Amino acid sequence: MDPHYYIDRLEISAPLIVALIQDMSDAQLRWRPAPDSWSALEVLCHLYDEEREDFRVRLDLTLHRPDEPIPQIDTQDWVIARRYQSRDAGEVLEAWLTERRRSLEWLRALEAPDWERRCTHPYLTDLRAGDFLAAWAGHDLLHLRQLTELQWAYQSSQAAPYTPAYAGDW
User: Fold this and answer.
1) Following CA atoms 46, 49, 55, 56 in sequence, which dihedral angle do they give, to the nearest 10 degrees?
2) pLDDT at 161 over 90
3) DSSP classification of residue 84
4) pLDDT band at 113 (very low <50, low <70, confident <90, very high)
5) 126 backbone φψ class: left, alpha, beta (φ>0; ψ -120 to 50)
6) Residue 118: phi, psi to the nearest 5?
7) Own/partner pairs for 106-110, CB < 8 Å, 24+ apart?
8) Alpha-carbon distance 150 to 146, whole Å?
9) What is the average pLDDT score of the chain?
């Protein structure tokens, strides 16, 4: 694994996420295609919380303090408990971008990290530091897809009585 590739992906994906949400109205940011789906704002809040409380923390603990307990998280619970739908999108976006910059600086400052070092906590199934890095970059891609799907669904819902079906198969 080339860790620089994954670190670069984290840097590249940030402006892509911004591009997908920057022109959304407040109504679109809070719109859900179904009651059990996330809105774009909820995705953004999730990315912010994951940046500060998941990937960087777990990777740091695995690399530097593997015997310390890793805090458990419940990302589904955060949506309600942290009132994602009522947050200010601009503030969350700026906070996430700040955390992403911190993450990139931290990752680039790591000195000879042992990507094979294993996390010893059983609920994380003995993941290696390299697994956390690859998953971090992959996590951005999953949410880029989710934001794209939200854009498509919202745009489609607003087109009535017309349909974007001619565009092709989703």
Assistant:
1) 150
2) yes
3) G
4) very high
5) left
6) -95, 145
7) 106/56, 106/60, 107/3, 107/7, 107/10, 107/133, 108/7, 110/63
8) 6
9) 94
Q: Model-level pTM?
A: 0.94
Using the predicted structure, report yes or no on whether residue 119 has a pLDDT greater than 90.
Answer: no
Helix (H) or strand (E) holding 40: helix 40-50
Structural domains of the chain sorted by starting position, each given as residue range(s) with its CATH number in brackets: 3-167 (1.20.120.450)
Which position has the token pair 């198969």? 169
**What pairs with residue 118 in β-bridges?**
128
Please write the tens of the pLDDT for every residue from 123-145. 776 789 999 999 999 999 999 99
Number of C-beta neighbours around residue 135 at 10 A: 16
The region that residue 112 occupies, defined by phi over 0 for left and psi between -120 and 50 for alpha, beta otherwise, is left
The residue count of the chain comes to 170
Q: 3-state SS of the chain: helix, strand, coil percent to 5?
A: 70, 0, 30
Asked if omega into 71 is within 30° of 0 (cis), the reply is: no
Q: How far is it, in rounded angstroms, from Cα 106 to Cα 154?
A: 36
